[in-house]
Structures are given as C-alpha cells and as structure tokens.
C-alpha cells in the first residue's frame, strides 16, 4: 500500500513538471518583454495558461516548466482538473471571475485585470459569469 502511495506522489510530481505553463508576471509582462495576452505562449493555452500548444514566448524564464517530450492528452486533462479544483474554492463546481483572478494571482492594475477578465470571458462559453469544467479548454 505504501508503494502505491509513493508511486501516486511521484506520478503527480512528474505530471506537474511536464506541464508547459506560459504565465506572465503580476504586471502582465512576459520574460521576452512583451505583454501577456494574458498567457505568454506562442500558441493557444487552456484557461490556466498551461497545456500550451507549441512553446512559451518566454521559455527562457526560470519560472516555467518545459516539456521536451510533450504532455499526453490524459496528463493535460488531469492538470486542468487539478487546477479547476484548486480554483473552485467554495466547491460549487464552477469558478467565478473573482476566484479565477485569485487563483491566477492577478494583482496588477486595471489593464492587467481587464486582460485576465477578457481571457476568463473568452472561456465562459455560455456567458453565465462562471466557468464550468467543460469550458476550461481553449
């Protein structure tokens, strides 16, 4: 039983290391001195700026995990589910804009908040003001 628990912990750690997350700083800037939109990816990302197709515009940044072998769709789905569960702080099964901004640690000025709010609204496919699990992919 201890062996299975250890394998689970190691597998989740490997999964986290394999994710490509292209995040901007708290002022909205990427390491390549461009403004995040809000993610710093060269391609599309899901709601949490991870599982990005391609590479990050700031891939030399020390805060990024890189994945030279690519994440499997199952790994990406698991990462999305974990991020969603952490962002859903009240356990309601959906994420409000306030919860999302807190999870993403957005604390910039109004323009930064507006960029992240627009990203949130892009993923709110039915425009009901919350993100549900089926809306988190790009």
From TrEMBL:
Leader sequence residues:
1-19
Q: Does the keyword Signal apply?
A: yes
The segments labelled Disordered in the record are 66-88
Has keyword GTP-binding? no
Q: Which superkingdom does the taxonomy of this entry point to? A: Eukaryota
Q: Which UniProt keywords apply?
A: Calcium, Signal
Q: Which residues form the EF-hand domain?
A: 75-110, 111-138
Tell me what this protein is called. Answer: EF-hand domain-containing protein
């Amino acid at each position: 039983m201890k062996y299975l628990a250890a394998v689970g912990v190691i597998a989740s750690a490997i999964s986290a290391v394999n994710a490509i997350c292209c995040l901007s700083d708290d002022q909205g800037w990427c390491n390549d001195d461009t403004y995040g939109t809000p993610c710093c990816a060269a391609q599309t990302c899901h709601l949490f700026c991870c599982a990005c197709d391609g590479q990050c515009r700031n891939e030399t940044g020390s805060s990024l995990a890189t994945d030279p072998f690519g994440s499997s769709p199952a790994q990406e789905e698991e990462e999305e589910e974990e991020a969603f569960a952490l962002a859903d702080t009240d356990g309601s099964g959906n994420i409000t804009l306030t919860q999302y901004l807190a999870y993403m640690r957005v604390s910039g000025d109004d323009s930064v908040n507006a960029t992240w709010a627009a990203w949130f609204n892009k993923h709110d496919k039915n425009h009901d003001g919350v993100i549900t699990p089926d809306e988190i992919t790009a």
